[in-house]
Amino acid sequence: MMKKWLSILLTAAMTVTLFAGCGNSGSQTGAAAEEGQPAGTEADSDTGAETTEDTAAADTGTDAADSDLIPITFSRTQDSLMETDIFARMEGATYEDNLWTDLIAERLGYDIQYLWIASSAELQTQKFNAAIASGTIPDIVQVNKTDLKQLVEAGLVVDIKPYFDEYASDFVKDLIAAGGDAAIQAGTYDGVQYGIPYVDCDIETAQMIWLRQDWMDELNLTAPKTLDELKDILRAFKDYVGSDSVGLALSSDLYGNFFDIKGWCNAYGAYPRYWIDNGSGELVYGSTTPEMKESLVSLSALYEEGLVDPEFYVNDNDKSKEALVNGKCGAIYAYHAGSLWPLQDVIDADPEADWRPYAIPMANADDKVSPGINMCTSSWYAVSKDCAHPEALVELLNLYCEKVLDPELNEYSVYANPGDGLEGVWRLTPVTINSPNKNQVTAKAIEEPLKTGDPGDLSGEQYSMWEYSYKALNGDTVLWGWNRVFGADGSQQLLMSYQNDSNVNLVYDEFFGAPGEVMTAKKSTLDDMLDQVFIKIIAGQESPDAFDTVVEEWKNAGGQDMTDEVNEWYKAK
């Protein structure tokens, strides 16, 4: 079977190569943007015909050796991108019969089976909840904090740590450790580790200020260190652009990854929607602190001066992006991938434009740069108490890392992204994992090759990012965004300076547990209560004193109970 799939993979890649000149050269870039996401992420919004157990069983191979394999069960949501990007290019491939399932069978002796493949994320949730209620779940599951807590309380999952300690390769152990202790603690209850975290990169949640570098150069402006200096830049940009200009791009999504106010608030020591230590060993909600009020007052002054779109609070991100694309705005707070979206759209519209990320400016010149950081890990693998071989999860992680992530052993061009239009093959395996610091490692690895133009022995994703960045440096503006992530003066270099600069103080969201009863029932309503008033304060429709009033109302409506609940967790962890 393995030879069959390798043959199909090679044929598909050659066929795509023959017709590459007629296709969209941006297809590889779009697929590369999906790398590092949890398996099935795309399926959260994709729909398709549900696959039944009978249909799934019919798709399995008929080799005699299959009867000797040990079945390991999973569930998943159908992924339409796999249908179009992979199955359509690999004749005969299915979720249960493909090059990854063959590799797993050959190397580990497991037969990958799906108890169900749901046609939508909503149906997946319904089926999974029904499985919990029945007490019978798939052998291996990937769940969020809330679901993991529910599984633990129902006694449906095993202590995974003994299996991890015994079976995990050194590479996997180092990778999980790099994700930080919080990700492991979040999957631990009463001292027992039930979940292996799908580790992600916490530092990449930090905000930065992205500025139109071509305007900065033309106006002879330098990087802002303080908010006053940033305001001077916004004024200079508005004068330069003229009518209909926007100073700082904001949207109604106050706390997203783009067009948000988090970076501005961080300048004052405010961390909205974070739980931060007040210095006395207790957590307080960052949206309710005096520093948050100060941030809102300063944003109100910015709004009154005309340095913010007067209708930001009714604009979604796409609407706010229009000012950037139309050359009317040159400043935006965003995270490390802001160059891929929305800023790549700006370059597509105006290839002469350029943007660059800078450290968030602070309120005062002598303040340490203090961006907020939160735990980026959002899912955990767990194993059913009924699974005969819990070690299978760890062995699958080992195999994935060997074939996709290990710099010496990887076969990236076969098992991850073969290229020439055939991308995302890594999604065929039911167990994947992220390397939390891989982007920083990649940025370091390609730094010198970008200067020399020689990739040397770069391979896998590192070679791909070098290729994208090098092409961008040599005039391929379609790939500009990748260079601004991985190249010189890019966002990954800035994040590394956040980590290594003694003048930077990273402030963490200290709550990373599963939501308690009060938080589950009331947090959304409580947040809305605050945000409605915050927007009115920024827009000058309410006085700053409205902040104190709404915080008291928030406490009385359940905010204090939620705070007590969080602190009970904080003291017990």
Describe the SSE topology.
Blueprint: H1 2-18, H2 27-32, H3 53-58, E1 70-77, H4 80-87, H5 99-108, E2 110-118, H6 121-134, E3 140-143, H7 145-153, H8 161-167, H9 170-178, H10 181-185, E4 188-189, E5 192-193, E6 196-197, E7 208-212, H11 213-218, H12 227-241, H13 262-266, E8 275-277, E9 283-285, H14 290-304, H15 317-325, E10 331-334, H16 343-349, E11 355-358, E12 372-373, E13 380-383, H17 391-405, H18 412-415, H19 438-452, H20 460-473, H21 480-486, H22 491-500, E14 507-508, H23 517-538, H24 545-572
Parallel strand pairs: 1-2, 12-14
Antiparallel strand pairs: 3-13, 4-5, 6-13, 7-10, 7-11, 8-9
Helix pairs in contact: 1-5, 19-20, 19-22, 20-21, 23-24
Name the features.
single chain; 573 residues; mainly alpha; D-Maltodextrin-Binding Protein, domain 2; 2 domains; 3-stranded antiparallel beta sheet; 14 strands; 46% helix; globular
Brief description of this entry?
By secondary structure, the chain is mostly helical.
Radius of gyration, in Å, reads: 25 Å
> Gap between N and C termini, in Å?
48 Å
By CATH, the superfamily of the largest domain comes out as: Periplasmic binding protein-like II
Q: Could you list the spans in which at least 5 consecutive residues all have pLDDT below 50?
A: 10-64
Mean pLDDT: 89
CATH architecture classification name of the largest domain? 3-Layer(aba) Sandwich
Tell me the fraction of residues in β-strands, as a range: 5-15%
